[in-house]
Amino acid sequence: MLSHWRSSSTYEVEGLLHYKDLIPRLEVALGKFSKMDSAEVIQPVRTTVPLQKYNGFLGLMPAYLVHEDILCTKLVCFYKRESGSTLPSTQATVLLFDPEYGNVKAVMDGEVITAKRTAAVSAISAKLLMPAKSEVLTILGAGHQALSHYNVFTETFSFKEVRVWSRRKEMAERFAQSTQGHVTVWESVEEAVNGADVIVTVTGASEPVLFGQWVKPGAHVAAVGACRPDWRELDDVLMRQAEVYVDSREGAIAESGDIILSGAKVFAELGEVLNGTRPALREKTTVFKSLGMGIQDAVSAKLVFEQWKSKH
Ligand SMILES: NC(=O)c1ccc[n+]([C@@H]2O[C@H](COP(=O)([O-])OP(=O)(O)OC[C@H]3O[C@@H](n4cnc5c(N)ncnc54)[C@H](O)[C@@H]3O)[C@@H](O)[C@H]2O)c1
Ligand SMILES: O=C(O)[C@@H]1CCCCN1
Hints:
This protein is an alpha/beta fold and 312 residues long. Strand 8 (161-165), helix 5 (169-178) and strand 9 (183-185) form a beta-alpha-beta unit. Helix content is 37%, strand content 24%. Bound molecules: nicotinamide-adenine-dinucleotide and (2S)-piperidine-2-carboxylic acid (YCP). (2S)-piperidine-2-carboxylic acid binds next to strand 4.
């Protein structure tokens, strides 16, 4: 049984979860979810307990994939941190159950799972929706998600140029150094996204940082931050001019400030595109609004557990 904690388990999970295994399983799970058949997938919208005093929330994210027999929940705390804070913004633990007996089979660190499965789903969105000839990738934000997105996007696609912007330039510089200089640092969001084919927003912002007037027509935006109904990363212009895709419609209309406050219509779930029931409008400007789903943690946890068992 995996029952280690924090740093050692982060390290352990890191070595057991690989994008090449994760991406196909996430595609299958997203497709099943979008069939809206409770005989296949049961995943309520995440329950959130606001921690106003600390500018954060506790999220409970249970899911059951019936045929795969994966019963799982993630417990995640997320905080909006002041610039310069050294406290972590996300801490998470994933519990994998034996669905027949109800016992917990494994307790694993959820930070790597959260980082990798979120980035992998953004990569799936880009595979489906980015312009056919995409050369420039811009990442807004320079934290954990920025790194996992950089890793999976450069592993999966061949961009000629990767740019980063962060609200603190030194963090963007540190990020660029960690990639051995394969990323260029930009002073302003407007300059960083100028001409970009793919833009990943992975900030802790609660007000828009990316404005539609700066985005090249036809570009694809994977919008990963702003996970509360009153938080924004994207402005109304972008939300209204783009075709909006989501991971879960139900989650998006309950939790996404970018969707709720702009009044933008959701065009499709990624799973609907994967199932062939809604089109991938690659030639249009597209936004994939990611909120994160329990099924994504569940398939990741199963993979980690399988890999761990094969080594013990
Ligand atoms: N969609 C999902 O499934 C999912 C999963 C995990 C995290 N997230 C979200 O992704 C975002 C990034 O998470 P992370 O783990 O990389 O966090 P992190 O704390 O490691 O990094 C956050 C980055 O955002 C920047 N930032 C913070 N506040 C900002 C502001 N007001 N304006 C501009 N930049 C700001 C920070 O400087 C840092 O570069 C968060 O909003 C988090 O809620 C989404
Ligand atoms: O789906 C998730 O895991 C994250 C947790 C933090 C806030 C946003 N969503």
